[in-house]
Specification:
- The structure is a single chain.
- It contains eleven helices and 32 strands.
- By secondary structure, it is an alpha+beta fold.
- The termini are close together.
- The N terminus is likely disordered.
Length: 438
């Protein structure tokens, strides 16, 4: 029989860099950072600190909030309009107005060097946004409030914040409970890989949801198989390229300028949308994680043996969930193939290389034979640097060099092995899949 060899590589690296923090007194504060939905705002004239209030040039903030602004030079009043809110701010007055109701300001609006400055908290909150001051990093974070009905993602009535008791009543017991690199545990649910679902549970509450099946419920009609254009139009916001955690930016560079996945900020969560480049970039999976849980997560990863095993089983489950979704038969798990895969992932991590052929010049097929595997056809996928099993799987599925063909191909058995990098390793973690047909 002809031996089928699948040899190809996928890489994805998470980059980080630090911001500088400084202390300020009253007056000009050019170093202050202001973010709206995690996107940093820029000003041609820097903000000003008066007392304990930050005043900003009105134009930049209003544009970021999607509001219209007008200036009445005779009455010296600024009017801002957004949706059903009309804000009127007289210059040098401690009284402003929202929909004809007076509001007392701690610091009045001012004209400085011909520019109009307004208190950022008053302006943002009265136009439907939340404002948070980060004293440690001298940064202001604006997050726009949203219609909960239109941006609540759920599956079978389960959403972020649902109790474990509610989950059990609806879904019963999970197939398996896995550790994660986060502070929650994944509860895995599926019926012979139909309606595959991972629920992150922390303190008996749902704090994360992932699924690559079209079982999502939301009023925006976003689901697996939705077009990318529909999703972007429904969300009506820009994707993030970074998330600030403490004083460190976590960047999310992806292949092909963000085409493989995008991260969006919702009011209380981060939504990651994975795309299928082989199907006109339609949505291939969705993941939503509670905002506080995501922001408390920092690398390095938990490097326990239990987490390695969890990633291995999840890679296997994700491949099978995808196959069943596409009308294919699921793989059979093979311990020997898993052992072969794990040994190769460990060797790459400890010997600091990334290749299908080992430093001993052993191919995937040599390694499988050493474990006693005989086959008609066989193949291997490897990946390194992805955050977890989900990102590794989605990366393979977007490959144009053979990974996808192995996952949706005619192989019957699959074993997966994962190993974490050491201090001298190039990557944090290494994933290997060994496929074969006896």
């Amino acid at each position: 029989m002809k031996l089928k060899k699948t040899l190809s590589i996928t890489l994805s690296i998470l980059l980080v860099y630090s911001i500088i923090t400084v202390a300020y007194g009253n007056g000009w504060i050019p170093e202050i950072k202001i973010f709206n939905n995690q996107e940093e705002l820029t000003f041609d004239v820097p903000p000003q600190l008066i007392g304990n209030r930050v005043l900003v040039p009105i134009g930049s903030v209003l544009r970021s909030l999607g509001a219209e602004v007008s200036w009445d030079s005779l009455s010296r009043k600024v009017t801002a309009i957004k949706d059903n809110s009309i804000i009127i701010i007289p210059i040098n007055s401690s009284t402003a107005y929202k929909n004809n109701t007076s509001v007392t300001l701690d610091v009045p609006a001012k004209i400085i060097d011909g520019r109009t400055f307004v208190p950022i908290r008053f302006l943002s909150e009265n136009l439907g946004a939340n404002v948070h001051w980060d004293q440690k990093n001298k940064s202001i974070f604006i997050s726009e409030e949203e219609s909960k009905s239109s941006l609540t993602f759920s599956i079978k009535g389960i959403s972020l914040g649902s109790s474990l008791e509610t989950v059990t009543k609806i879904l019963g017991s999970p197939k398996r409970i896995d550790p994660s690199e986060y502070s929650f545990k994944w509860h895995i649910y599926h019926n012979h890989y139909k309606d595959y679902l991972q629920l992150g549970i922390k303190n008996n509450k749902v704090v994360a949801i992932y699924s690559n099946h079209p079982i999502w419920e939301n009023e925006t009609n976003i689901n697996v198989a939705s077009s990318k254009s529909t999703l972007i139009s429904s969300l009506n916001r820009k994707p993030l390229d970074r998330i600030l955690k403490g004083n460190v930016y976590y960047l999310y560079p992806t292949f092909k300028n963000g085409e493989e996945y995008q991260v969006y900020q919702l009011s209380n969560a981060y939504l990651t949308v994975f795309y299928d480049l082989h199907k006109n970039s339609q949505v291939s999976a969705l993941q939503i994680i509670d905002k506080s849980v995501e922001e408390e997560y920092h690398r390095p990863l938990n490097t326990s043996a239990e987490l390695r095993k969890a990633y291995s089983r999840q890679v296997f489950d994700l491949a099978n969930a995808l196959r069943v979704r596409e009308g294919l038969s699921p793989f059979e798990w093979c311990d020997l193939a898993s052992l072969s895969s794990e040994k190769h992932s460990r060797d790459m991590a400890e010997s600091n290389y990334f290749n299908h052929v080992s430093l001993k010049d052993e191919s995937p097929f040599d390694r499988m034979k050493q474990e006693g595997i005989t086959y008609r056809s066989a193949g291997e996928n490897i990946a390194a640097g992805q955050q977890n099993a989900i990102f590794a799987h989605e990366g393979w599925m977007n490959s144009f060099t053979g990974h996808r063909e192995a996952i949706v191909g005619n192989y019957r058995r699959l074993g997966v092995g994962v190993w974490f990098g050491t201090g001298s390793s190039r990557f944090n973690n290494y994933f290997t899949q060994n496929f074969y047909t006896p």
